[in-house]
Design brief:
There is one protein chain. Helix content is 36%, strand content 15%. The strands form 2 sheets. Strands 5-2-1-8-7-6 form a 6-stranded mixed beta sheet. Strands 3-4 form a two-stranded antiparallel sheet. α1 packs across α2 and α1 packs across α3. The longest helix is centred in the first third of the chain and has 24 residues. The two termini are 42 Å apart.
């Protein structure tokens, strides 16, 4: 204890003489304690020149090493905390700045639909299966803010996370509890009806073309079969990358992010919710999370 007090006192004397404060202010108390502890009976303090030569350079080297470790983050948890988790030198996936949208223009989205499902998750998938079971010719429009068709989320953090076959995970497939493989998506892409087939555009020019094609087929003696099967037999289409910002249940209208209005007969709000993660002050805890 006496050596430490004497060393701190010597170092502080040097720093005071050069008018530089490289050490925190809390260490100045050691100087006072060292001075009083080593003061003589006549009130004159002992000289600290020899003490500095013995302990000063070692302390400066120690503080220099700690400063370097702090700057370059040599010791985990000691470096600067800039609020971003470390990736361990590995390249991390970056989300694209622009979200894929289908369709690209909201003018291709119909103005009126019989069934509107807001949200592209498991609830919407179960809902349109029930709707199609009750009404096979139903036309269902699903709106999701993700650029994917409805998929299963639990396997992302369970089966696919712990699966050692990375090629299987890259193909968005996983092994179930019975060791059988299946896709992460509930249904393949060809299960869904294209938007333009399920809800054909109703511009005057396109209506004239449809009438002409109907007359041509009737004059040839062929059955009048629509060129867009989804328009007669119904189906499910998914609008991806779009968000519903307003919903008026009294007027039965949903407003998209760009102001596009979609009227509906029946609507299901199945957006789910987003979990709230408390911020971590420690870099190590954020890395574990």
């Amino acid at each position: 204890m006496s050596r430490n007090l004497k060393a701190f006192g010597s170092l502080q004397c040097l720093l005071r003489s050069t008018n530089k404060r490289y050490l925190p202010s809390v260490t100045w108390g050691f100087h006072k304690q060292a001075t009083s502890y080593y003061s003589t009976q006549d009130g004159k303090s002992n000289s600290s020149d020899g003490s500095f030569k013995k302990y000063g350079f070692g302390l400066l080297a120690a503080f220099g090493a700690l400063f370097a470790a702090y700057q370059f983050n040599v010791i985990p948890g000691l470096g600067k905390d800039d609020g971003t988790p470390s990736d361990g030198g590995k390249k991390r996936f970056k989300r694209p700045s622009k979200v894929f949208k289908y369709p690209k223009d909201s003018s291709s989205i119909p103005d009126k639909v019989p069934y509107l499902l807001i949200g592209g998750g498991t609830a919407s998938f179960s809902a349109f299966r029930a709707i199609k079971s009750a009404d096979p010719t139903a036309k269902v429009l699903v709106i999701g803010n993700e650029p994917f068709n409805p998929y299963m989320r639990p396997p992302l953090s369970k089966e696919m996370f712990y699966n050692e076959d990375r090629d299987l995970a890259k193909n968005l497939r996983f092994k179930q509890w019975n060791t059988s493989e299946r896709s992460l998506f509930y249904e393949p892409d060809d299960f869904y009806t294209p938007l333009e087939s399920l809800f054909p555009p109703t511009t005057p020019d396109q209506q004239e073309k449809e009438k002409e094609s109907a007359k041509a087929s009737s004059s040839d003696g062929k059955a009048n079969v629509a060129t867009t099967p989804g328009a007669n037999y119904g189906g499910v289409t998914v609008v991806r990358g779009w968000q519903v910002t307003q919903l008026d249940t009294s007027k039965k209208v949903a407003i998209l992010e760009d102001g596009k209005a979609i009227h509906f007969d029946k609507c299901l709000l199945a957006t789910g919710r987003r979990r709230k993660i408390c911020p971590f002050s420690s870099r190590i805890l954020r890395q574990k999370h």
